[in-house]
Amino acid sequence: MSHCEDVLDHLYEYIHSNDFPSDGGTEIKKHLQNCRSCFSRYEFEQRLLERLRNAGCCQCPDSLKKKIQFLIKQF
Ligand SMILES: [Zn+2]
């Protein structure tokens, strides 16, 4: 199983990228099913993304993306 740090490193890509390598994606998925703390981060970021999408912000500027990544790391 992956370590939390590895999963969190790739969590952002996992959620935001449609063509995430399937092997890595599966590893992350498995980890999320077994790890409460990573799963809650995952949920947190997904909700954030949903809110951005609802706000009609499909093409967020890079600065905003960086801000979000920063927020997630603080969480
Ligand atoms: Zn974990």
How would you describe the overall organization of this protein?
The protein is mostly helical and 75 residues long. It has one domain (4-74). The chain is built from four helices and no strands. It is globular and about 30 Å long. The chain starts with a helix and ends with a helix. The site of zinc ion (ZN) has 6 residues, from helix 1 and helix 3. Zinc ion (ZN) binds at residues 4, 7, 31, 35, 37-38.
Tally of distinct domains: 1
What distance lies between the first and last C-alpha atoms, to the nearest angstrom?
23 Å
Query: Secondary-structure element order, as H and E?
Result: HHHH
Strand elements, count: 0
Oligomer kind? single chain
Q: Tell me what portion of residues adopts beta-strand conformation.
A: under 5%
Radius of gyration: 12 Å
Decide which structural class fits the backbone.
Answer: mainly alpha
The average pLDDT value, as a whole number, equals 80
User: What is the tally of helical segments?
Assistant: 4
Q: For the report, how would you describe the main beta sheet? A: none
- The best one-word shape is globular
Named once each, the bound ligands are: zinc ion
Residue share in helix: over 70%
Sequence stretches where pLDDT stays below 50 over 5 or more residues: none
Q: Could you write a compact summary of the structure shown?
A:
By secondary structure, this protein is mostly helical. It has four helices and no strands.
Compile the SSE list and pairings:
Elements: H1 4-16, H2 22-34, H3 36-54, H4 62-74
Helix pairs in contact: 1-2, 1-3, 2-3
Bound molecules: zinc ion.
Zinc ion is lined by residues 4, 7, 31, 35, 37-38.
